[in-house]
Amino acid sequence: MKYLILIHQNRGARDQFASFPPEVQAAGMQAYYDLNAALAATGELVSAEALADDSTGTVLSLKSGSIVTSDGPFAESKEMLAGFYLVDVASLDRALEIAAMIPEVQAGAGDVEVRPVMDTAAMA
User: 81-102, pLDDT tens digit by residue?
Assistant: First the structure.
């Protein structure tokens, strides 16, 4: 079963991380590299990416029959979607176990949401 693990980060977390000494930043990034390597080794990692700041995003919507775009950020919130993992695992319990290893959770710098990916083949 595939699960999308969404990383929600406090808005100031990236600026705070940038203010840390280089060795602290390196250790923080190493936690991601280690998690990625472990999941790749087990074959559970489908994809993982960090996302650019939400101010760089664009939303498309239909207004009066025409597609219009608007620039981000899109909602007043304390958090933003910072990245994701797409994993293919045996159970929700395993997906939750992986989510608990995300550095934001370990550091208290954000929340992680776990959602199953819909099997759209069943819709055909």
Answer: 899 999 999 999 999 999 999 9
Q: Are 5 and 116 a contacting pair, CB within 8 Å?
A: no
Q: Report the chain's terminal Cα–Cα distance, integer Å.
A: 19
- CA-to-CA dists, residue 42 to 15, 36, 81, 100, angstroms: 33, 10, 26, 17
Token reading at 47:
């994809």
Q: Which of 76, 54, 61 is nearest to 6 (CA)?
A: 54
Structure confidence by residue, pLDDT tens digits, 30-65: 999 999 999 999 999 999 999 988 888 888 889 999
Under 8 Å between Cβ of 82 and 17: no
Give bridge partners of residue 67 from the DSSP assignment.
Answer: 62
